[in-house]
Amino acid sequence: MDFDQNVVFEILSSRLSGRRFAFGPADGPRLTENLSFGPNGEIEGYSHTNEAYWDIGAEHFRILDCNGGVMWRPVSVSTDKDGLLTFLLIHPPSPQTHFILQELAQEPADTPPHPAGAYLGAPQTSAPQQRDAPHENPHHSGLSDPAYLFPSDLEVTPTIPSRVLMIGSCLTALYVEQFRTRHPETSFDYIPYNFVSILPEAPPCPAQDYDFQYIQIPLRSVLTDRVVQGMRFNDPEFARTIVDDACDVIDVMLDAAMRYNRQHGLLSFVSGFIVPQRSAAPSLRGIGGAGDLCGIVRQLNAHLARKIADYDNTYLMDVDAVASSIGKRFVLDDMVYFYAHGAVTYQDWDDFGAIPRNEPIPALHTLYPTRQADFVACIFRQVLCAWRTIGQVDQVKAVIFDLDNTLWRGQIAEHYRPDTRPWPRTDGWPLGVWECIHFLRARGILVAVCSKNDLALVQERWAEVVDPPFLALEDFACVKINWAPKTQNIAEICSEFHIKPKSVVFVDDNPVERAAVTATFADIRAIGGNPYLTRRILLWSAETQIAHISDESARREDMVRQQIRREESRTTMDRETFLATLGTTLSFLAITSTRQPEFSRVLELTNKTNQFNTTGKRWNFEEISQYISEGGTILAFFVTDRFTTYGLVGVLYLRAAEIVQYVMSCRVLGMEIEEFVIAQTVSLLRDMSETPTDITASLIETKDNTPCRDVYLRCGFRETQSQDSSRHFILPAQDVPRCPPHITKAEPEFS
């Protein structure tokens, strides 16, 4: 039968308990006949880092790896004459790879599972993955903790760090031990770091070999053991001294731990502190007061966040939020250990019968079930997702929403008529989605409406349906409410936004509409079948986060609205007249330091621009820092016309008399900006040379950069050689490129 999400949900809800499955390649021997789906979201009976969890995602039943990433999803399900199920699975990054998940009629023979082979480059482990002690937790089912906190539904491109540097105390040592077992494809180097530690002059490997470093400052070193003497917190002066001293220690320890960041610009993630799970105030009246250790740790987290802002390429990891979401009772050790230890609970090493007792101490998990493995998996997933966000991997630039049964319950034409009251409720998920839209807008993500409906009817009833008035139709940068095919409307939205479908998420409750859209736009991401998942996926996914809010990000929605006005104006006059009336001005700014406020926008624009990008190269912070230090020139430019201020919309990477890379936002394509910029850049490079100079440029053709492939030829360059997708151009010293007359060069208003 055809794959149906609702059928799968019912099957998995009612039939998985106590069932066993065979699992393995479609064209090879089964790897196991003992695989089962545990009620806590874990794969049981079969141990491999690639198959660790299961859940039902936005659109599919999925099998997840130990990071919470999607490893397998079914494309079909069939039943045999006995009603037993067989799923055909694919690995999303390699959809040509097929595996089989086959329900067995009886319990399999008591034999060990077949060792996992090297399918898809699967990581090998010499021993089964360590699991937490079993525990009963009927509320923890469905989504695994990593998949819940850090959704993978919008991931398209897998990311695996090659080498990571870990710096920290015994908690970091635990991370390293677990990470090395779970992620053998990544190398982890560890430098112990406690109070007054001094890092080696150089890390274990060259700094450029690391994708990032993870730094954990131990809470005990910051607070010192003075805080064990709880009676002293009755003295307000003692509490103030603790905070002041702790902030000073954080400053010193952070500065020492950031040695490789300062020297090499190494991308750094700094762990926050876990707040004790119960108030340590001496009295109920003192909860949240100056003498409450919980409040003090929160102050320290706030101070750490402020200090991190002083360092380049550095981000805070909110570990306390992860522990709180999982449940600190399953993670933190302060029900046994002292408050300032701030680590993960484990069985005390002295309590295994070595010391005689009148009553033997039972295993810790019988009293305090632990979820250490879940916590460690979330810590890795947290930093992995932050790394993806910074690299702008699979970044979402726009979200397009349906209306009926997507932004509200029911159909506006049927369920919200005056004679059908009471109308469907708006509490619960509709309110959550309405707020979600505003937070997406705050990140510079464009939102649009694409609905088969009557526009006048929607406008008439909107204020009554969207109640309380969290959301207005005017909040959307583009609205397509008509009876045209949604594929046509989405194509128009992408054109007006100057983005490709691969940067878009389409949210619609109707599986037929989603299927039609994904069939037309293979790269678009479509969700919306389950409204309980929509908000979490859109707000918590790495692909909808941004590393920095630039001025351009904050104003993107308004700029797009003005661009639409500009395009409407273009249709009323010929091209020359239209360009002459734009009043376009352009200014340049040299980027000479990563500390310049415009630098984050330069990095963002370079790494997210696909269409007008002459090489497609992505740069990280360290590479650009080195490029500048070695004499490379980075020239940014800003554009304004009578419709709007576009902000920083282009970057050129220059070296001597060569244009290394040219990147420009598609928002200003068609205004002859690209030719003006080339003419001004050529003039600048020649002014810097003492003799007439040939200007050279190179271009690498990518699947997306068609709009810029002829830019050098249009500016008068001559193509000198071409090999595969690599092309080279030259502008002889005596040639002067055309400079469009309708654009004016202005001086920048910033430095």
From TrEMBL:
GO MF entries: hydrolase activity, acting on ester bonds
InterPro entries associated with the record: FkbH_domain, HAD-like_sf, HAD_sf, HAD_SF_ppase_IIIC, SGNH_hydro_sf
SUPFAM superfamilies according to UniProt: HAD-like (SSF56784)
Domain of life: Bacteria
Coiled coil: none
Region (Disordered): 110-144
Protein name, per record: HAD-IIIC family phosphatase
Originating species: Acetobacter garciniae
